[in-house]
Every structure is written in structure tokens, then in C-alpha cells.
Amino acid sequence: NWLEGRGRSVAAEVFLPRRVVEQTLRTTARRLIDVNINKNLVGSALAGTTGGFNAHAANLVTALFMATGNDCAQVVESANCITLIEEAVSHSAASAEGSSSSSS
């Protein structure tokens, strides 16, 4: 299933404002990125994981299956994913960089 897939495929993306990351999660984007690399990517690879380098997507899939009346026993082959985290460049910072480089 990891290589050829079966059933449905879904891609999801979320943007967390800096305020939420710092005040609610009490961390920084850089720390989230570092944890994701070390735990989800490197850690999963070292453990010999096949079918996902993720932040336990099975919990989310199980909740969706329960809410929609699907068979939760199928979560084992429905929760394959890769979790990626990146820091977004703010539009104001990008604009400032662009204007300073064009004036040089």
C-alpha cells in the first residue's frame, strides 16, 4: 500500500501563525522543525519504518473513521504518511528583502 496505494489519497496542509506557535505551543518554528527531522524522519528511518515517517497520523485517521462510521480496523493500512514541517517566510520580510536587494 505504501508503494502503489489503495483507496483514497489525501494531502493536507496547515499554517500556524507565529503567535500560535510561540504563545499556545510555547515553542518556535525552528524547534518544531528540529523535532520533526529527528523524531519523524531520522528516528523512523533508523527504526526501519516502512509506510510512514509521521507524527502518528493513525490517531487522526481513527477519529475520522469513527466519526464517519468506517471500520477502525482498517486504520493500519490507512494511516501511511510523511509529516513535513517548514517555516514560512512572511510576506513583509520577503518584501523587505526584495526591496533592499534591488536597491543595491
Give your account of this protein's structure.
It is a single chain. With 104 residues, the protein is an all-alpha fold. The chain is built from 4 helices and no strands. It has helices at residues 18-24, 29-46, 58-68, 91-102. The model is unreliable at 99-104 (pLDDT under 50).
How is the biggest beta sheet arranged? none
Structural class: mainly alpha
Helical region count?
Answer: 4
What is the mean predicted local confidence, pLDDT?
81
Binned strand content:
under 5%
Q: Which geometry do the CA atoms define?
A: globular
Would you report the number of β strands?
0
Taken in chain order, the helices and strands follow as HHHH
Q: Helicity level, as a percent range?
A: 40-55%
Distance between the termini: 53 Å
Radius of gyration: 18 Å
**Weakly predicted, low-confidence segments:** 99-104
Question: Would you summarize the structure shown here?
Answer:
Helix content is 46%, strand content 0%. It has helices at 18-24, 29-46, 58-68, 91-102.
Short key terms for the protein model shown above:
mainly alpha; 104 residues; 4 helices
Layout of helices and strands:
Blueprint: H1 18-24, H2 29-46, H3 58-68, H4 91-102
